[in-house]
Amino acid sequence: QVQLVESGGGLVKPGGSLRLSCAASGSISSAYAMAWYRQAPGKERELVASITNVRTTYYANSVTGRFTISRDDGQNMVFLQMNSLEPGDAAVYYCNSQDGPGRAFAPWGQGTQVTVSS
To answer: How far is CA 52 from CA 18, 66, 92, 107, in A?
Structure first.
């Protein structure tokens, strides 16, 4: 099974930027898509962004224009560049593969914590 390891989270001020990384133990090119999810305390895990194997991207309305998802198939890595961060972006961020639109496939990793506070 594929192992996913997220990194790059931390404490940032509102308006700041952060770049998250997701390293996969196996090839990511065979999946329909790679995606980032987030879960804030007391809330359901939600899809933030995804990028298909043909480089089609999707963004949740709340992050459109501020976040950019990208992938490097040679490194088996997925990235999430987060700009203009807001307090509402604070959450644990997870990556995963998708076997179809919106469908997480691999076991969840530990995630990486993003805190946005002044």
So the answer is: 22, 19, 22, 19
